[in-house]
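User: For a reading group we're discussing how well predicted structures match intuition. Take Glutamate 5-kinase. Before you show the prediction, I'll give you the sequence so everyone sees exactly what went in.
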Amino acid sequence: MVHGNSTNFKWQRVVIKVGSALIAPDRKGVSSRYLLGIAQFIVRCREMGIQVVLVSSGSVAAGAHLFPDIDKPSVSIKKAMAAAGQTEMIGIWNNLFDFSTAQILMTHGDLRDRERYVSIKNTIHTLLDNGILPIINENDTVTTDKLRVGDNDNLSAMVAAASDADVLIICSDINGLYDKNPRTYDDAVLVPVIKEINKHTYAMAGSEAGLLGTGGMRTKVEAAEKATSHGIDTFIINGFSETAFNQLLAGQNPGTHFFPVAKPMKELVHWMTYTSDAQGEVVVENDFEFDMDIQSELLTSEAIAEVRGQFTVGDTVLITKRDGTKLAKAVSNYSSCLLSFIADQADDSFATDFQSNTGSIISPKNMAMLNNKTV
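Assistant: Thanks. Here is the predicted 3D structure of Glutamate 5-kinase, as structure tokens, for the group to look at:
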């Protein structure tokens, strides 16, 4: 834990996220200029018995130099850049290590599907157990707006949760989270410790994004919220500084350390809250409140005001009030068609009798209370 700027790290598994600016700083293809220090950090971690997962952005930036005459690339050109750049990026990582690596490309569609999520989780664990370094990136070549995570900061948090990591290290182009934008204000002060992520934290993060990547400081705070909710220590550090990595290995905090929550979410609840996309919406009246003392039936058809969207049994749904308040995400035991039908019945006894024979609409073990979290 952190006491001031000194720490006592006892890590078993680390996820480190590296962005486009580190991979291709001049947009002239991949460069080892800043990657050598990161590779040395990974090697030293492994020598200490710490398993490492690398989340590496940069395929589009790495491939951009192969399309020199295009100033404003279309979506299809960016996908082609990603396809070409991915091989260059993996190639340079392989050249920096003398042990085996494995490439894993994924989309949000893979992560939000429970069966595929578990498959990814098992693959990562198997690779680590066999001494192989997983190198993970979003599959920009095939992903669509509907299926993409959008930035590798948030992807790295999802990967950290799937990997059962102890710590997530997010590399930035500045030293960490400042109380205001250090590029604009000379008196900006680095915040070394964040014990609770709240509106004030997001206000400090602002909304600026880097020139080479899609993620700014805000997405890094979003990632920290996801990771710390799962009990994962999270650091934002300056990835351009070899000193920062040496400080981490020496048990010092070189940037901003986000503390994990006291009571981490269970794995399934965390997945539903932060990774699984709601396929539909169940709207309840404004005066509805969940009775958490009831462990069998948390939502009755009488409480449902409206069913929105189309979903099937086993899909994740968002439960909201009429005023838009988000209450929970849950796995639905009913399809949208069937749920709409029984909720529309004028005779309440019909719905009661139906549910007594078919089971609850949602189960407590398959529900995540949102409590105003970013989802």
